[in-house]
């Protein structure tokens, strides 16, 4: 129903004599209406830029005003609060660090739901607790809006090149409307089921990612200590059964690959603190579902230790540097 309401809003104030023309045109007009974007950090910034590249007018805000400068220079309209975004756009994407941030942006005193229009489509690409996604969906429904969770995988590089993978949870009849926007920012847009299932898929993916990165870092460090050239070892791994994303696309050893955080003192990318947060979400859901995740638990502890040792703001691949430090090789 929300999709119908959004489509009808695009036709208000315009008169068409031919019904068929109006039907065909409603989709093109929809694509020209403003899209709200809240959260312009390492991931949100390039995502919003890709929407601008596809011709969508953007109305954006961020708790840190300096984060808005780049998209503003590209033509985005910057406002002061999520409520103002909701007042000016009926399709809104949020990309925020954690569950409390999402709750504040949606239900806070200047939140989206204070000014949301009936029929609005609200897409949250943050990685948060699935139960919070369900709570936000229920709150949005009371206001006549539709909430979908659509967390992403791929990192900053994929966000910049519009090659993200979106895992979408929500009403299936709204998926097409969500995909129209998400396809501008990603190469894969997967429907997972009802609200919260997108988050479930993302949490599982990031737990595996953390385990794989730690394993790659340990393997590379062992090989180096055994006298192997790191580039040679990486090449062998990537043509063998040990190959994984952390070895062939995001290698954690400085000098092995260009264009990745390990080659830039682990700056940029996906922060260790965020990985620790996501692993905490995995632990909570594993406890609630009585699911044994021994390697996931160990990965969580390692990334928490890294945060305590000064690695919180560095990319999560800095686990290689952490391991070297632990053995006194830094």
Automatic annotation (TrEMBL):
Record field: catalytic activity: 3-hydroxy-2-methylpropanoate + NAD(+) = 2-methyl-3-oxopropanoate + NADH + H(+)
PROSITE patterns: 3_HYDROXYISOBUT_DH
Pathway given in the UniProt record: Amino-acid degradation; L-valine degradation
A Gene Ontology BP annotation from the UniProt entry: L-valine catabolic process
EC number from the UniProt entry: 1.1.1.31
Keyword Oxidoreductase: yes
Residue intervals of the 6-phosphogluconate dehydrogenase NADP-binding domain: 35-193
Class of the enzyme per the UniProt entry, highest EC level: oxidoreductase
Residue intervals of the 3-hydroxyisobutyrate dehydrogenase-like NAD-binding domain: 196-321
The protein, known as: 3-hydroxyisobutyrate dehydrogenase
Organism of origin: Takifugu flavidus (sansaifugu)
Lineage per the UniProt record: Eukaryota, Metazoa, Chordata, Craniata, Vertebrata
